[in-house]
Amino acid sequence: MYPAKSNKRVPAPICYAALGFGLLILAGNEVRSFVAAANLTAPSRPIASVEADSVDPAQDGETVHVTGSLTARQFATDPRFPVPGEFLLLRRFVEMQQWEMEPRRGPINVSGLAEKGFDLRWSAEEVDTRADAAPATQQNPPMPLRSEAFLAEGLRLGAFSLPADVIPALGKTEKVKPTRELAAALAAGFPGAEGVVDRDWIVIATGAPLKSPRRSGQERAVWPVGTLRVRFETIAAGPYSLVARQSQGTLLPFEATVGNPQYLARAGIHPAEAIYSQARGKNLFLTWALRLFGTGLFAAGLLGVLLHRTKI
Fold first, then answer.
1. Burial of residue 205 (number of CB atoms within 10 Å: 0-12, 13-18, 19+)
2. Closest CA to 83 of 302, 235, 286
3. How far out from the chain centre does Cα 282 lie?
4. Confidence of residue 7 (pLDDT cuts 50, 70, 90)
5. What separation in angstroms does the CA of 46 have from each of 38, 42, 243, 272, 287?
6. Minimal CB count within 10 Å: which of 82, 83, 195, 215?
7. What is the mean pLDDT of the chain?
8. How sure is the predictor about 128, in pLDDT bands with cuts at 50, 70 and 90?
9. Inter-residue contact 210 to 115 (CB < 8 Å)
10. Residue 47 to residues 7, 42, 69, 237, 244, Cα–Cα distance (Å)
11. Cα(75)–Cα(308) distance, rounded to whole angstroms?
């Protein structure tokens, strides 16, 4: 006797949604790629490279290429935590150990300490379990600290000033490596707390880890409800190469071929063509990544729709 065939299928609405979202991603990606490619085409005339230590009035209103050390009148700092370094952007990420209702699907009892339908998990947002009729023992305290970003003020590239909206164009943020010294400095702001390095995070521990039947070792400790953990990402000051529009003594976004004005920037000292080349490479990678993802989503949705229609 042969086993009966399983009739389990992905619900039809999900298949149609995958089909629609796949098409939307593919179409939107092609528009985005076209606009980006148009804006990253080499200019019809060479971009003038100007010295950063003086402002050339003859280049006023022109798109220029400038290299030099990007500094600030006041570097980005976190008023709560002393993170050493000179940063143009300092981003603090905070999560708190909280009770959350266990999902119907997905990982159940992640901590190994689930009780009455609630489990301990890290969350960046305050979770109010009272809305889920949680007993008093599964209700969370208020979250005393939130994620936040801090920007440098008074940006300068040699003789030029820059607005703060240049910072997102400078590249990806870098993670701050947690150290015991940084952990101790963070914990100093919480009386009786100890800073514990846990992979990319610093746990501000006010009590010992809980004993879990599913976890062992300091790296995978389950901390009491209300425990905070913090990490940081930064964009550091230093040498940068920038393509922008010179407006007297300020560097502003230059007019794009399509869409809004933009900056092009790259860390280090590079010619203008290298900046454009890097930006074109990033656009090409993103274009193909979205094409593959959109095609896969569309194909999965189409297959599901066909199976439902043919009732195989």
1. buried
2. 235
3. 16
4. low
5. 17, 8, 12, 9, 27
6. 82
7. 87
8. confident
9. no
10. 64, 9, 20, 25, 10
11. 59
Considering only CA atoms, which of 57, 56, 97, 92 is closest in space to residue 76? 92
Query: Could you tell me the two tokens for 64?
Result: 């220029």
Confidence of residue 212 (pLDDT cuts 50, 70, 90): low
Which residue in 261, 288, 89, 80 sits closest to 187, CA to CA? Answer: 80
State the amino acid at position 58 in one-letter form: A
pTM to 2 decimals? Answer: 0.81
How far is it, in rounded angstroms, from Cα 91 to Cα 76?
A: 9
Instruction: Write the DSSP assignment of the chain as a string of letters.
Output: -PPPPP-----HHHHHHHHHHHHHHHHHHHHHHHHHHHHTSPPSSPPEEE-TTS--GGGTTSEEEEEEEEEEEE----SSS---S-EEEEEEEEEEEEEEEPPSSS--SSSS--BTTEEEEEESS---GGGGT--GGGPPPP-----EEEE-EEEEETTEEE-GGGGGGG---EEPPP-HHHHHHHHTTSTT-EEEEETTEEEEESSPPBP-TT--SGGGPBPPTT-EEEEEEEEE-EEEEEEEEEETTEEEPBPPSSSS-B-EEEESS--HHHHHHHHHHHHHHHHHHHHHHHHHHHHHHHHHHHHHHHT-
Cα R_g (the chain), whole angstroms: 26
